């Protein structure tokens, strides 16, 4: 994969990362059988884990920073940034900078999204738009990169709803979940088929984490599951048989995730959660 293609691959990662580390303190209110999502600020440090392309990547260094806020009654807002330095060898180093903000209505009926992709400080693309459930499907209105309207299938889900379904499947002991996802990434016209493989539960006190999750009392008594989500481009006819992107992680029953592996095809990047700040939650009326 060329460095110029990296920001595009990053876009579909926002959906998962936006919803994966949504922590809730012990004793948090329960909504529909799941722990309430609370505001937080998380940081992941990135580094190259594996390379498998014909032109091996020499090094990847970077960081994910995002700030999550909101509630089920007022919706969930996210400010996200991922900066990655890619060293392809022979003195060629590129810097990818993905910035995004999203807002999703608490019941998964509306989504607003804005993102910008930079490569070596030059803006490659920008997306602005919103999506809303209508009686027969999902209506999308884009203002960037072009003024355009789309009509999508009602079976698609938005990012936070996707993670809720994964957690529900894990609690029920299911190992496979397939669902279509729309997150407003890339040009705002992408649709993804996703396949989630859920592993055996890891009970509290088993395989204790050594990252920022270790110092969180909210996680000490919770079960977590290893999971891998593969993304397939559904936009074209028949979609792709090979995933364009996959992410592996451990997800706690309240939504907190750790131990990331971001698979871009030609190489894999690991993400260690180095900081997790749980903020005060504003309760719903």
Task: Give a short synopsis of this structure.
With 285 residues, the protein is mainly beta.
If you had to describe this structure to a student in words, what would you say it looks like?
This protein is mainly beta. The protein is 9% helix and 50% strand. It has one domain (3-98, 155-278). It contains three helices and 16 strands. The longest helix has 13 residues, at 159-171. The protein is globular and about 50 Å long. The relative contact order is 0.21.
- How many discrete structural domains? 1
Distance between the termini: 49 Å
* Total beta strands: 16
Q: Major sheet: order of its strands? A: 10-9-8-7-6-5-4-3-16-15-14-13-12-11
Helix count equals: 3
- Helix/strand-derived category reads mainly beta
Largest sheet, described in full?
Answer: 14 strands, antiparallel
